Amino acid sequence: MSGFWIVLTGALVASCCAILGCFLILRRMALIGDAISHAVLPGIAIAFLMSGTRDSIFMLLGAAAFGFIAVFLIEMFRSGGVQSDASIGVVFTALFAVGVVLISLNARNIDLDLDCVLFGEIAYVQWSTLEIGGADLGPKAVWLLGFTLVVILLVISLFYKQFKLTSFDPALAAALGIPVALFHYVLMGLVSMASVSSFESVGAILVVGLLIIPPAAAYLLTDRLGLMLVISVAVGIVSSIAGYGAAVALDASIAGCMVCAAGVLFAAAFLLSPKHGLLALRRARSRAAA
Amino acid sequence: MWEMLNDPNLRWILMGSILLGFSNGIVGTFSYLRKESLLGDVLAHAALPGICIAFMLSGVKSVGLFLVGAAAAALAAAAITNLISRYSRIKPDAAMGIVLSVFFGIGIVLLTRIQHGSYGNQSGLDKFLFGQAASMTMGDVYVLGGTALGMSLICGLLFKEFKMVSFDPAFGRGLGFKVTALEYALLTLVTVVVVTGIQAVGVVLVAALLITPSVAARYWTDRLAAMTVLAGAFGAASGAAGAWISSGVNQLPTGPISVLAATGLFLLSVLFGPKRGILSKLLLRRQAKRDWISKQLAKAGAGAPATQAGTANPAGERGASL
User: Fold this and answer.
1) Which residues of B touch A216 (CB under 8 A)?
2) Closest-CA residue in chain B for A208?
3) What pLDDT does B131 receive?
4) What is the DSSP secondary structure assignment for residue A138, as one 8-state letter?
5) Do B211 and A277 touch (CB under 8 A)?
6) Which of residues 155-184 of B touch A (CB under 8 A)?
7) Nearest-CA distance from B267 to chain A in Å?
8) C-alpha distance from A133 to closest chain B C-alpha (Å)
9) How sure is the predictor about B318, in pLDDT bands with cuts at 50, 70 and 90?
């Protein structure tokens, strides 16, 4: 049973991240995802210190707030003349450092372990269960991630056309009257939400792996956004199952193994993709030469 | 806290951190100007599996070996990032994200393998995540200090060449310089600097010591030489602050403190930097507004009725805030 819950949690994390990651990749904002997944740490720590519980609603709010702060600061420094990559680097390292200091200073008072925050403790998800009226409804993390996934699916499917257009051609979208900046912040908000719901299971640093790797693999396999989303989610789920298997076999970190499995799938797509893979390109080149 | 300077061991640690911060700041200047700031982050995360493999193969905790392993892994990461963005339609930023997280994932897997395995004296390997300057021994400080000194010397000797590669590589190629070789030299320097910095700041945050001091220094000057030295000084100050404070307070890793010190310097620069700083921009705007108003008043006094100057004022404000 424990294996089932772990794989289900992993699959939910992977699905949340894989959907949002597609839009990040298309907007060339992969590293903003990286930045947000680091920057939510102080939000989590502060929410934890203030509420004293691991109650997920507070953490979601705290993390979402810091996700916004990070995006806002990055944008502010960029418009102030700092190069965008440096602006990302300065902001997320500073916020992450604040989070680490808060957690290590209060390490004795809170059971928020730094290792857990960084690499996740997906192996423990089954022990923190949601109980309503004495009935055991399964791990809390699964409910939280399920809720996040529903929100993501709802927002993306309601505004699919708008998200698609703002990702591919923001200038046209703006000309058609779509509030591009609003959708930018909605996407960032969703990424913050996904980062914080996932951090308990895969950790702050590895969220970025699931945000970027499955969509990148999907990007190599198809030219259609709808299909890319489906493939991306599939890659994410397969890597969470394979990663769990590998982790059990190797007796190693489950989250780490999931990211490695995603990496292997990406390598396969990079080499073997029928249209954009390395081998296909090579074959096309030699055919053209002949 | 001053008694720390009397303790020879801590004095060494402080020296080592200052040298590391200095060389990080200097090299970071060039990567900032080449718009490769986040490459340092990728290289640093990617160094983790290298450190783990070096430990698994040798079974000893030797800084020299760790540096070799970390450097090898970081260079491999740089090569793979290049490969992905060159031979597929994945953009460079996504390629960096992929390599960063996969290498870090491998590092975590190896770290947990080491923790669960029979590798004996493994405690302290996780110090490489956030750095623990206090765990440096005198031998380590010699190695790190020597490396830092070497880096600074190389940057000094190749200053003109690096300047050219940072601003206009095409021009350099036209002059017959071996630009590709210089770019690889710079990449190697970034790798070495990041890898040595790991001891003090840790894998996760060492990139900040590369990025933040140089961004801060950019606020103070337009000259590369001054910016390089200033970034080095900012880096040294942050390294020193990190080592000092974290050795005084229990349970506090060095990395985050150094990063926060660097961020503090950055914020001061954003506020008070001449020309680019917020304060000087405000002063400039106010001066411009005053000039404009007095010019309008003078004009109004010369010809048109004085009320026009009053109505022109809000427009002037809008113009100034743009």
Assistant:
1) 90, 94, 97-98
2) B101
3) 76
4) E
5) no
6) none
7) 10
8) 38
9) very low
Residues in CB range of B196: below 8 A, 6 or more apart: B20, B23, B67, B144, B147, B148
Cβ-based contacts of A105 with chain B (< 8 Å): 251-252
Q: Is the distance from CB of B241 to CB of B257 less than 8 angstroms? A: yes
Q: What is the CATH number of domain A2-281?
A: 1.10.3470.10
**Residue among A214, A246, A20 nearest B102 (CA):** A214
The domains of chain A are located at: 2-281
- Looking at CA atoms only, how far is residue A69 from chain B in angstroms? 16
Helix (H, G, I), strand (E, B) or coil at B124: coil
Binned at pLDDT 50, 70 and 90, residue B261 comes out as very high
- The complex scores an ipTM of 0.89
Chain A positions in Cβ-Cβ contact with residue B113 (cut-off 8 Å): 250-252
Tens of pLDDT, residues A150-173: 999 999 999 999 899 988 888 898
Is B259–A81 a contact, with Cβ atoms under 8 angstroms apart? no
Is the CB of residue B113 less than 8 Å away from at least one CB of chain A? yes
Contact between A253 and A34 (Cβ < 8 Å): no
Q: In terms of Cα–Cα distance, which of A35, A40, A32, A50 is closest to A100?
A: A40
The CATH topology of domain B2-255 is: ABC transporter involved in vitamin B12 uptake, BtuC (1.10.3470)
pTM: predicted TM-score of the whole model, two decimal places: 0.86
Asked if the C-beta of B275 comes within 8 angstroms of chain A's C-beta atoms, the answer is no
Partner residues linked to A132 by β-bridges: A135
What integer pLDDT is reported at residue A136 of this predicted model? 64
pLDDT in tens, B171-201: 888 888 888 888 888 888 899 888 888 877 8
Per the CB < 8 A criterion, the answer to whether B16 and B200 are in contact is yes
Q: Which two tokens stand for residue B11?
A: 């004095």
Q: Using a CB-CB distance cutoff of 8 angstroms, which residues of chain A are in contact with residue B40?
A: 89
Shortest CA gap A94–chain B (Å): 6
For the stretch B265-311, pLDDT in tens is 999 999 988 888 888 888 988 999 999 999 989 888 876 554 544 44
Q: What are the DSSP calls for B171-187, one per residue?
A: HHHHTT--HHHHHHHHH
B194 contacts in chain A (CB < 8 Å):
none
Within chain A, strands assigned E span 129-132, 135-139
